[in-house]
Task: inverse folding
């Protein structure tokens, strides 16, 4: 247990056999944040690798796991290793020819059980080490895992966030994300990635409008800001969701027509950090122009091409003080 | 819910009627009848060949426990309880070595969990029960086995979950209360290939596992009570003797809050105590509206000149003030202060 920013990170280790994990998966006591985004051939390759490691009796690295309120375990792995193994156990995929066990080539779990029961029991008895982050740990610290250990992309991070914050957040973000369908070519096609971008845009909006505040001496980092944003989204009523949904649609339209005219490159580094930063500020620039009653396209021109500003935004850490400084500069440019 | 017990000719009682509520506290000097009331409940609840000797208690033969001061020829015990909105009664009459039962037995759905004062306390390892995962044992000897087997499961009685920020598993709720009362969390796990359960405690400040012998004795005792309480459900009866054992006054007060919380959620708690901190903790809960005074009953047991026990019901008002203070009812501190201060 360690302490960070006044909060504790509680964690413990638990060893679970493949058989136990599979049973828990069937009982929804082990859950995965998202279906793996990989081709069938890649999946078979990954299954074959892990099966060979298990049969050789080698130790695999600890699997990081987030404990949920009802005690179920959310798997935080970035490489979908365990997820692929579960899909093998469900009988969806066979293994390719293995270097040390060529006799298993092309077999699915059922055939393996019939023809090689001893090997199958090795597989079911193999124990994974789960490093469990307890429910009592603040949720943003569960999310911080992605930066510290697992190296998640935004899609995975948002999948995990939706599982941790509950269906309601996912439903609300999905509703906002749906308004962008069809006319937001610069966004990723993957829903979870778009939901992440929406959360980042809202984070900047809430910070700009003072809805997210820091306590005296507190410095909120990106994950803490996203945590506060998610909580605020959950607290908003359906009228707000409708209004912000309309606002997203309108701003997206403005940005798209501006992009088509000036070819700024909104789609650059699609779904990645740079795009998250660019979009979270430009959406807010449009909202600021609307609030001030100035011409949106003019506002975009005045800010989007300001190299010095974007260099600052790119290099500054994401925290509330910096966001406020950036918006003060934008405010100046819009005068 | 158990509403009333009527006792005739049993140990120190010639005749007594004790009424119960969601939370019932039994107090008084030693050998004045507190445990006898609990034994009367258990004698009615345990339906072994002899109701005086069974899994909850073994207090000997009828001749040994008849009221010999009053020369009682027989023992009569009667319980009045309600079940599914119906008023029921169940009685047992003991004469010589014969036992006559009448009325409606306690249904299986009403589970009585009895924790004796002689609880197991601090061990590095605890035994598994051979009778299954759901046993706690009157000495709480299987409490940690119960925890190991159920810690990751959602708590049996959803209404007992403290609030929506706490984990809904047994382990989560036990940790929440143990940490709140004494600042520790507990882990219980089977030692593979043995019949033993290993227990360790964690403290947030130290950040490491500590074996039971290296934490305060009260931590193990309180953990056992918390686990036992969570093994119950709504409508069950939890009987605890002297929960204050090894506990600091502040811990006693917090423990009372815990049990009051469960009593408010439908667990019937019957507690015997010598602790003024528990008594005052209960009054504090009434004062702060954790429980209303009509859901609390307090009995103070006294002896008359013939050494027969007389239960006196102590009344609390809505602010937790005692309405009928008795000599000897948790007033020792005042008597001592009078001497110390020379008044």
Result:
């Amino acid at each position: 247990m360690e302490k960070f920013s006044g909060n504790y990170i509680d964690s413990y280790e638990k060893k679970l056999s493949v058989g136990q994990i599979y049973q828990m998966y069937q009982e929804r006591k082990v859950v995965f944040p998202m279906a793996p985004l990989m081709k069938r051939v890649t999946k078979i390759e990954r299954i074959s690798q892990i099966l060979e490691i298990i049969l050789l009796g080698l130790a695999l690295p600890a699997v990081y796991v987030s404990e949920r309120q009802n005690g179920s375990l959310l798997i935080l792995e970035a490489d979908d290793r365990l997820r692929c193994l579960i899909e093998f156990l469900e009988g969806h995929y066979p293994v390719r020819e293995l270097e040390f066990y060529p006799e298993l080539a092309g077999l699915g779990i059922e055939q393996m059980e019939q023809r090689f029961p001893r090997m199958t029991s090795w597989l079911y008895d193999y124990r994974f080490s789960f490093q469990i982050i307890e429910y009592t740990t603040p949720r943003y610290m569960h999310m911080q895992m992605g930066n510290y250990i697992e190296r998640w992309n935004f899609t995975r991070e948002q999948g995990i966030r939706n599982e941790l914050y509950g269906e309601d957040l996912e439903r609300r973000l999905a509703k906002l994300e749906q308004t962008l369908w069809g006319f937001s070519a610069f966004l990723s096609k993957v829903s979870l990635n778009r939901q992440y971008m929406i959360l980042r845009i809202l984070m900047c909006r809430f910070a700009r409008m003072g809805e997210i505040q820091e306590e005296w001496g507190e410095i909120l980092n990106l994950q803490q800001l996203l945590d506060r944003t998610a909580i605020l989204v959950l607290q908003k009523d359906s009228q707000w969701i409708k209004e912000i949904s309309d606002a997203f649609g309108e701003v997206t339209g403005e940005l798209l027509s501006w992009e088509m005219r000036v070819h700024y490159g909104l789609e650059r580094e699609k779904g990645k950090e740079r795009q998250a930063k660019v979009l979270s500020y430009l959406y807010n620039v449009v909202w600021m122009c609307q609030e001030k009653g100035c011409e949106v396209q003019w506002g975009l021109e005045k800010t989007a091409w300001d190299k010095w500003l974007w260099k600052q935004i790119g290099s500054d850490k994401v925290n509330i003080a910096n966001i406020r400084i950036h918006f003060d500069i934008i405010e100046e440019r819009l005068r | 819910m158990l509403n009333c017990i009527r006792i005739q000719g049993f140990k120190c009682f010639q005749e007594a009627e004790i009424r119960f509520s969601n939370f019932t506290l039994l107090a008084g000097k030693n050998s004045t009848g507190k445990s006898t009331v609990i034994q009367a409940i258990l004698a009615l609840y345990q339906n072994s060949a002899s109701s005086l000797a069974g899994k909850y208690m073994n207090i000997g033969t009828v001749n040994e426990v008849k009221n010999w001061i009053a020369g009682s020829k027989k023992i009569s015990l009667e319980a009045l309880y309600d079940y599914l909105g119906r008023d029921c009664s169940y009685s047992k009459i003991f004469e010589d070595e014969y036992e006559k039962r009448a009325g409606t037995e306690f249904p299986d759905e009403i589970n009585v969990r009895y924790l004796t004062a002689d609880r197991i306390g601090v061990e590095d390892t605890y035994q598994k029960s051979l009778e299954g995962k759901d046993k706690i044992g009157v000495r709480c000897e299987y409490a940690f086995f119960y925890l190991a087997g159920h810690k990751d499961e959602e708590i049996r009685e959803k209404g007992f979950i403290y609030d929506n920020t706490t984990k809904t598993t047994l382990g989560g709720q036990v940790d929440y209360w143990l940490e709140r009362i004494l600042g520790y969390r507990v882990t219980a796990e089977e030692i593979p290939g043995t019949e033993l359960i290993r227990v360790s405690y964690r403290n947030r400040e130290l950040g490491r596992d500590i074996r039971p012998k290296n934490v305060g004795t009260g931590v193990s005792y309180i953990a056992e009570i918390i686990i036992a309480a969570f093994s119950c459900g709504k409508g069950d009866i939890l009987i605890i003797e002297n929960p204050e054992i090894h506990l600091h006054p502040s811990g006693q007060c917090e423990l009372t809050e815990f049990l009051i919380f469960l009593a408010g959620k439908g667990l019937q708690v019957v507690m015997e105590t010598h602790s003024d901190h528990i008594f005052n903790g209960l009054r504090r809960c009434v004062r702060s509206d954790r429980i209303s005074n009509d859901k609390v009953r307090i009995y103070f047991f006294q002896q008359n000149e013939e050494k027969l026990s007389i239960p006196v019901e102590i009344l609390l008002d809505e602010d937790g003030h005692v309405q009928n203070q008795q000599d000897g009812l948790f007033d020792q501190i005042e008597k001592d202060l009078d001497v110390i201060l020379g008044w």
In short: Residues 16 and 128 of chain A are 5 Å apart (CA to CA). Chain A has a mean pLDDT of 91.
